[in-house]
RNase H type-1 domain-containing protein (Araneus ventricosus), 288 residues
Amino acid sequence: MEEMKGLMIFTGGSKMDGRVGCAFVVFYNKTELDNRRFRLNDSSTVFMAEVIAIQQAVQYVKANDLGQVNIISDSRSALMALSVVEEARNIINNIKEDIKEYKGKITLTWIRAHMLNFGNERANQLAKEATLISDEAISFVPSRNQIRNEGNKIIKNLWQNRWNDSKNARWTKNLIDKVNVDRLYGDFYINQIFTVHGVFREHQARFFKKTSLCSCGQETGSVLHVIKECEIWTSYRKNWPSGWQLMSLKDLINNAIIRISLRGLLHELLIKEIDLLSSFSETDVSRH
């Protein structure tokens, strides 16, 4: 309040319950002189609400020829967009042009949000009230980014539904239940766990008619047996976090320490299986 000297206009934007609004409030020293509220269409973003609030404040200053005015916003992104030299969005360029053509002086200032500044809090309160206005005062056609993001959201939902309904890859689905578009970095060893393919004897027996019995001779050479039970690989489990026996396979894979250990385990298992295969091949050659 002590810093509120001269003519100031605080702006704010808000989105509540899917409805978007913005507002500005005019102060002279510490006295509120005027305010305006605007309801935007629901597809608008908070960023656009902040920009519209600044635009409406600039137009208010020009219409009333207020001389020197400080327009204050807590939206760093909106102010940064207005500060760049080249900008593709027409609305940003229009605001910059209005400020440039104004005969008085308009200064744009950033204020940190949630610092209990009375003017900023008042503008944000009015912006929230604006979301309750029944009729939309300002509407926008969705931007290219909004259209692309909505399209990606629809594609991802369809993909997730297909993944949920698929009767294939049930093992993998238990380990990766949510689809995503993050970059996937290949991991030769861990991917064998995700797909239950590769070096595991259970897989080798199913596809290549080899023995499914683990080299320990106790159980089928399944993923769970090799990782959690087989006595051959006890040394790899010594440094695992306590309580790992109760962890699911998914949690084991996602644990950074265990994941590194699993790579070493599967690497050694692969070497053993290759050596075993080589010894069988040499035996067959010697017989012939």
In short: The chain has two domains: 7-141, 183-282. The longest helix spans residues 256-287. Residues 183-282 form one domain.
